[in-house]
Write a structure and sequence with these properties.
alpha+beta; nine-stranded antiparallel sheet
């Protein structure tokens, strides 16, 4: 979602275990053999290869020291994924999740999909690059045994009445894909914080006879300016806030604005990647860099020696 970690979110919860329970019972999230089934239901479903679709909507704001926050965009996003079972002789049977995702920036007043945007700080009109990350896969399968030999545990699991709540934070700090080869020295790192709050009905997610669960999710992201905004070194950051859920009706339940945009420009996003997908993950920053590199190559240009934007 920039929304790339939604597809990895459930894996970070530290659920793990084996497959479906043999007898009807209430799953125990502290038991690693039950926990992977809970996690798999949260992400996808019990059956391998069954597509699952998450949908979210919300708003994006700017935050600049000394001025009021600005409501820049509305957000419409989706992630389509599947899970496949994998077995390790020492770590047991777990699963891997693969996905791709779209997030559209829409006009905050009309909700129309934006093609261009007038930057209120620079006065430039820039091309809007929507999130279209393919793939966004789990970095490694979930197993009942961790790499160091210890069992997974549920560190953020909360049971409140009829609800299972799973909040967690994902702090991001890595070399900026649009930077040069000396970021360790110049400090041009990419830094962001993503916050996910899942809520699922306990009678769905803990019932061994249920094939899947349909949790809701809230998503908050605090991050740097989007590269296509051409903000250069201006002070400030973006704040994204959205809510959504796994859709019981799957892809057909997505709102028309997303289905129309996918049909017109992203037809492969009607299905998840193959279960054995080995491609590196995409982010807004890697996709933007690839787009710029391709345009420069087509025009016979190279990156400016000064490091300035084209």
């Amino acid at each position: 979602m920039g929304i790339r970690n939604l597809a990895l979110a459930c894996a970070a919860i530290a659920f793990a275990g084996t497959g479906a329970a043999a007898d009807a019972r209430t799953l125990d999230p502290s038991n690693p053999e039950d926990a992977v089934e809970i996690s798999k239901r949260l992400q996808c479903g019990e059956q391998d290869g069954e597509p699952a679709v998450y949908y979210w909507s919300g708003r994006a704001y700017s935050r600049v020291r000394g001025e009021r926050d600005r409501h820049l965009f509305n957000l419409e996003g989706m992630n389509i994924r599947q899970c496949v079972s994998v077995t390790d002789p020492e770590r047991g049977t777990g699963y891997r999740q693969v996905s791709r995702e779209i997030m559209l920036y829409t006009d905050p007043e009309t909700d129309e999909v934006l093609r261009s945007w007038e930057n209120p700080w620079t006065g430039e009109t820039v091309e809007v690059m929507h999130v279209a990350n393919d793939p966004v896969n789990m970095r490694a399968p979930n197993f009942p045994v961790t790499r160091d030999g210890s069992p997974y545990r549920i560190s953020t699991y909360r049971r409140i009445g009829d609800w299972v709540l799973i909040p967690f934070e994902v702090p991001l700090f890595y070399v900026n894909p649009l930077g040069g080869d000396y970021q360790e020295f110049t400090g041009n790192m990419y830094q962001a914080m993503e916050i996910f709050d899942f809520a699922a009905r306990a009678d769905e997610i803990l019932d061994s006879e249920a094939n899947t669960a349909y949790p809701s999710v809230s998503w908050v992201r605090v991050a740097q300016w989007l590269p296509w905004m051409r903000m250069r070194s201006r002070d400030g950051q973006m704040i994204f806030n959205a809510v959504g859920a796994k859709l019981r009706g799957g892809y057909d339940e997505l709102p028309e604005v997303l289905r129309n945009e996918i049909a017109a420009n992203y037809p492969e996003y009607t299905a998840p990647p193959p279960g054995d997908d080995a491609r590196p993950n995409d982010t807004t920053w890697t996709v933007f860099r690839r787009m710029i590199d391709e345009r420069r190559a087509a025009e016979g240009e190279s990156a400016p020696a000064s490091g300035h934007s084209e």
